[in-house]
Amino acid sequence: MAKQAEFIRKPEWLKTKINTNDSYKKLKHLMRDKRLNTVCEEAKCPNIYECWSERKTATFMILGDTCTRGCRFCAVKTGLPSGLDLGEPKRVADSVSIMGLKHVVVTAVARDDLEDGGAAVFANTVRAIRHQNPGCTIEILPSDMKGDYESLHSLMDSEPDIFNHNIETVRRLTKRVRAIARYDRSLQLLQRVKEIAPNIPTKSSIMVGLGETTEELIEAMDDLRAHDVDIVTIGQYLQPTKKHLNVEKYYHPDEFEELKKIALEKGFSHCESGPLVRSSYHADEQVSQSAAQRRIKYMKGYESQEDTKVDFHF
Fold first, then answer.
1. Any known ligand binding at 51?
2. Residue 71 assigned as binding residue
3. Is residue 205 packed enough to be buried (19+ CB in 10 Å), middle (13-18) or exposed (0-12)?
4. Quick one: fold of 17-302?
């Protein structure tokens, strides 16, 4: 039996401030009232108090709260999901309106039980948000849909402003860290998005502290750039429960700054790198000027066609 890695105490820079003020409480109540899930809660994100209390932002997690995969880094519940909630896109759009968001991130559990991996619900959620909130930019973070590029085309027809798909870790550790997902399939998915929609920025995220080397991190950056990925986020892996992978190393903030410097030198248009950075952290700051201009165009079109009905389809 392999020896379990020695427990490493969390350093001071990873301690977060708990702030359950009125903004936090109102947002939590809204999510319960609308029967919505957020990756902020389900994945035990360390930034939940900052985002919900100060920035008033959230990452909606659609397609239920049960993932068909059992990745060894993730706290989201795994199992066999039951059915589809066809009213979910409208409730997400309603919540975006109530919160007055200018940028929204929509992610989902992996739904390998569905023929299209949930692409239709994803697309309908984007359309619903845009119909009710024409000035809001939208970032999506889907699974790899097992490389089903027909479903990817269906999803991209909804025209999100940023397409985000995470490689999570370096090539050598992928099999150990991620369930079912493949390193090269994720890269190919990101590349295919660029082929479908060259003007839509693509984004990916890497966790550190799982036993990777600096050389492997640099190689992962090179792989992302070779597949035309525009934005990268780099954050510290935190073990959610004792059943998950151990933390092999806590990176110092200075090391994150160095990784950011390397990423920008590689040609990424934006890099968020820090101990508490997660894929959707400060996502509103990563919206390109072209995306903002597209939203202005949508708003003008919306104002002249207020009675236009959004086209939902499955």
1. yes
2. yes
3. buried
4. TIM Barrel (3.20.20)
